[in-house]
Amino acid sequence: MTVPSCYALTGLTRTAGATRRVVVQGFDLPFRGVLVAAAGFAVGLLPTVAAVLVVGTWGLAVMAFVQVAVFQLVERRTRGGLHLRTYRALLDKRRGTRTVGRFRCCGVTVDPAPGVFRVVTAASVPGRPGTASSGVPGVFDGGVDQSVSASAGRRPRLSVA
Predict the structure, then answer these.
(1) What contacts 132, CB < 8 A, 6 or more positions away?
(2) Spatial contact of 140 and 132, defined as CB atoms under 8 Å apart
(3) CA neighbor of 75 nearest in space, from 125, 30, 114
(4) How many angstroms separate the CA atoms of 16 and 11, rounded?
(5) Model confidence pTM above 0.90
């Protein structure tokens, strides 16, 4: 019996979404750019109609302005730091001003000064009976009843003192 060969495609498909292209009216465009343009059109439709009613055909400049603004917010990245997209940097800055004095870890606000402090210590690994004492009588101090055979498949019972 032959087993079909398996290939790891993760390396080939990881960046497939970033390089996906769409052909629209003979123009080869990046898929993300088409989505951003469609979102910009949807956002700019109502202000453009209002501007055309007020100033005539010069109101179409509003659609061009909205398209440029949407592309700048979504596609452009910040120059310093993490090179975030512009809209993400603006949202983070806005959220940061509302959380002054709070500590955020992975999107969750954490209180750095809780009312109750706890000390977490490493757990002790029990050794052979009699070598380590846990402070509880009968546990790890030789108080285990060895009368039950280990070959019977049962665990040894603790003797009650």
Answers:
(1) 124, 126, 140
(2) yes
(3) 30
(4) 10
(5) no
